[in-house]
């Protein structure tokens, strides 16, 4: 009888982790979402889409649609006419308001990302006296309501002659305490100190280290901060309503003029609301995939 040959112990030990990893991968790939997961996701999706559908349903009808007890759940055929009423309304000044919203939101979001990344890098990776107390003070300013500073801020811009100008809503929002805190936490957890020390040993200056290491690592968090800041600046109503006039409004302020009459046609109002939402949907459609891929890349690297 021929003896059965057995593999050496070293070969078995070498292949054992691979076999375990393959079985673990097979188990992970074999996990499927259950019924309750799909049900929960369906409820979330319907809850998110329903307000838009309701706005489109009313916006595609006429002035009597919102008060009709027998209203059909199928859209009507007046949405284009109602949208043209918003666009062509001289009191709204739609195209100027759209440009003001796009310009101001883009400048504010870009400025917040730049200054927050610089400040976050300083708080996270630089050591200077009073750094922790200064960061605590910046975070504490988030607890102060914006309404408390409206009166002195308006008096300041009035003395400077900037009321009614688009710069009056851009300058106060160039920095963000939340953005500084967000980038500080992200950079402190993502960038190891050894990487910075290696760059300094290689002769890189602090600016060079920040540009090659910090900016590269901060891209996922910066993309999220830009997106959220853009949406927040786009939807801002209180301060633009106070400091801007009707000749140069932002889009939310311009759309509020549709409700200034004695009779409010909600089909026209909701058609205008949907028009103001379209640029945000386009932004999420183009930036959503890159945003998610950037977040996953940052998570893997971290």
From TrEMBL:
Return the Pfam families for the record.
BPD_transp_1
Q: Which UniProt keywords apply?
A: Cell membrane, Membrane, Transmembrane, Transmembrane helix, Transport
Stretches that traverse the bilayer: 33-54, 94-121, 133-156, 162-182, 221-242, 262-286
Residues covered by the ABC transmembrane type-1 domain:
98-287
Q: Where in the cell is it found?
A: Cell membrane
Asked if the record carries the keyword Zinc, the reply is: no
The annotated topology with respect to the bilayer is: Multi-pass membrane protein
Q: What is its main location?
A: membrane
- Which Gene3D superfamilies would you find in this protein's record? MetI-like
Q: State the family it belongs to.
A: Belongs to the binding-protein-dependent transport system permease family.
The protein's name: Carbohydrate ABC transporter permease
- The source organism is Microbacterium psychrotolerans
